[in-house]
């Protein structure tokens, strides 16, 4: 089977087939069927002319693993297949990918337009590091497409989007904002971590650069960190050059784990988002829950846009608990099938309040200004059976009600 044949066949293939086969049509040493971990810092050459050609990029090959590595290249090919991208560049973490892409294209005097809701680390790059190097950043109300368009129209170099957002699951209309950005010649970047390539194809919606924290759903097992950036060959050549010099390259062990995880991406996401929909609907019926955020609910303010630009609504749900942090502290320890942890996108269900997860870097005042209340809990729905996850929540809520009744009873008997 030639690489070309596999490539064109894969263009027609479904996401499950792509998850398995994209990037994997390479012949490995020893006829291994699995991607080898090439743990070599450098690559040796007897022939100085050949070495020089490879170093200049005139011949294929590898020189030094900060610049490129065979295992990492297979991961880059795999995400290209899933995002339908010409080229991709892998980084050591999602934040390395995000900051490196921003620093590749921004310099003193540039202007970025983005939204108030974005991953906490990204928000810090916008508020703390970019202004320090003379880049002005305007963060708009995420729900106000009019305000975002007005800010873009004033002129900007980069429009940075994240949809759905972390942790409030807001949706922005990608096509609409891309149209506004193209009018002023801005480069559009989108963080596709929450949607995954299975549910949303930002490049097809007109975005120039797609970014993933591969630590999350792509890897899927919470045992490796990485970041991936995709786009045209021209743009990625610039990003690759930045990585080569600034050095946040991905190590081959993590690349291997992410490749292995990505083979089950479609299978996992289908199960996880079908449970997420059921859990979101259940939470709507729970008296202790004040609000539920999930783009798959018809009550979500941008459900129609989500239906338009997404093929599925993802595995992230968040909800606001009555009683704020006090109730959060009682509810979370009652759950059996749950890690309480600061990550997401794994096979296990993970719960966490924004205070210790997405917005751990922010102060209480900053979180409240972003509309993130202390009772907000984020769920990354895992691959467990849907009924078990709902039963687990039901017993936990029941326990919270009993405990708070006991508390009130003991309080009232003390005051008697
Ligand atoms: C986790 C996350 C990041 C950062 O990725 P790391 O791999 O933790 O550096 C960026 N964006 C989103 C939406 C995330 O969830």
UniProtKB/TrEMBL annotation:
Family affiliation: Belongs to the trans-sulfuration enzymes family.
Cofactor(s) needed: pyridoxal 5'-phosphate
Transmembrane segments: none
Cellular component per GO, a single term: cytoplasm
NCBIfam families: PRK08249.1 (NF006097)
CDD domains: CGS_like
Upper taxonomic lineage: Bacteria, Pseudomonadati, Pseudomonadota, Gammaproteobacteria, Oceanospirillales
Record protein name field: Cystathionine gamma-synthase family protein
Residues modified as N6-(pyridoxal phosphate)lysine: 216
Alphabetical UniProt keywords: Pyridoxal phosphate
UniProt xrefs under PANTHER family: CYSTATHIONINE GAMMA-LYASE, TRANS-SULFURATION ENZYME FAMILY MEMBER
Gene Ontology biological process terms, A to Z: transsulfuration
Molecular function GO terms recorded: carbon-sulfur lyase activity; pyridoxal phosphate binding
Pfam families recorded: Cys_Met_Meta_PP
């Amino acid at each position: 089977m030639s690489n070309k044949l596999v490539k064109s066949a894969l263009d027609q293939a479904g996401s499950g087939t792509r998850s398995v086969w994209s990037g994997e049509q390479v012949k490995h040493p020893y006829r291994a069927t699995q991607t080898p971990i090439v743990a070599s810092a450098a690559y040796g050459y007897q022939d100085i002319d050949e070495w020089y050609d490879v170093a200049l990029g005139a011949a294929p090959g590898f020189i030094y693993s900060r610049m490129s590595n065979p295992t990492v290249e297979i991961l880059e090919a795999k995400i290209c297949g899933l995002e339908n991208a010409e080229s991709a560049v892998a980084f050591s973490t999602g934040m390395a990918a995000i900051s490196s892409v921003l620093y590749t294209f921004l310099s003193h005097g540039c202007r970025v337009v983005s939204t108030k809701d974005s991953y906490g680390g990204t928000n810090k790059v916008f508020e703390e590091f970019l202004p320090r190097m003379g880049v002005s950043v305007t963060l708009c109300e995420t729900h106000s497409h009019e305000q975002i368009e007005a800010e873009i129209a004033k002129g900007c170099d980069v429009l940075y989007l994240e949809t759905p957002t972390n942790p409030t699951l807001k949706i922005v209309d990608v096509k609409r904002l891309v149209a506004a950005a193209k009018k002023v010649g801005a480069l559009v970047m989108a963080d596709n971590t929450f949607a995954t390539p299975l549910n949303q194809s930002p490049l097809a919606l007109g975005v120039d650069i797609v970014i993933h924290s591969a630590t999350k759903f792509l890897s899927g097992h919470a045992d490796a960190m990485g970041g991936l950036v995709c786009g045209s060959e021209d743009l990625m050549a610039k990003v690759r050059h930045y990585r080569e010099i600034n050095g946040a390259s991905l190590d081959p062990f993590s690349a291997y784990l992410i490749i292995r995880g990505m083979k089950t991406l479609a299978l996992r996401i289908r199960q996880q988002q079908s449970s997420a929909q059921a859990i979101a609907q259940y939470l709507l019926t729970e008296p202790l829950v004040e609000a539920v955020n999930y783009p798959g609910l018809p009550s979500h303010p941008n459900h129609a846009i989500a239906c338009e630009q997404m093929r599925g609504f993802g595995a992230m749900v968040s909800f606001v608990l009555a009683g704020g942090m006090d109730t959060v502290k009682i509810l979370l320890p009652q759950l059996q099938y749950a890690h309480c942890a600061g990550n997401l996108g794994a096979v296990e269900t993970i719960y966490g309040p924004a205070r210790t997860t997405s917005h751990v870097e922010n102060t209480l005042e900053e979180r409240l200004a972003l509309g993130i209340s202390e009772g907000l809990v984020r769920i990354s729905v895992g691959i467990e059976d849907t009924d078990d996850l709902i039963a687990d929540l039901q017993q936990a809520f029941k326990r919270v009600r009993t405990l708070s009744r006991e508390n009130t009873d003991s309080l009232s008997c003390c005051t008697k």
